[in-house]
Amino acid sequence: MREKLQFAARTAATAGTGLTAIILALALVLIFALAVTIGVALAQNTQPAAPNTPPTGQAPSTPATPPAVTILNSHEVEGILGREVISPTNENMGRVVDVIVDRAGQVRAAIIDFGGFLGVGSRKIAVEWNALEFPPSGQSDAKINLELSREQVNAAPEYQEGKPVVVLGALGKLEPLPFE
Question: Is the pTM of this model over 0.85?
Fold first, then answer.
């Protein structure tokens, strides 16, 4: 490496004097340094080639296929957690705080934080998903309608995580969710 730098300096010295010689010498040194850097980087990135045959006792692996992707337009979908729920008489019934799904992934109920004042004295009530009426798309600030009266929701037992879920149905009936 030292010999190549000396060669670059000699070449620059014989090419002329003054500023031209200095620029030529610097250019040669930079080109050499770049070549060395690229060579080192390539040497570090080379790995031994993998054998074409799988190890004994293993089936050849198939290339992984990318997962399927679905694109949901933002004007067609929106989140519901935290959204306000109102009764048919426009009374504030609380906010959606959770969604319950069965083992097949089907939405079964919404958990509404019902009653109380500023979070004090409120209870979580599970209401049947079909009892909720959602506003048309594009109205992200619109409230969710619950087709049950305040009295019906007030009479429902409190939802407690980890215990059997009793869901207040769309007709005001209490129905247990079968989770086994």
Answer: no
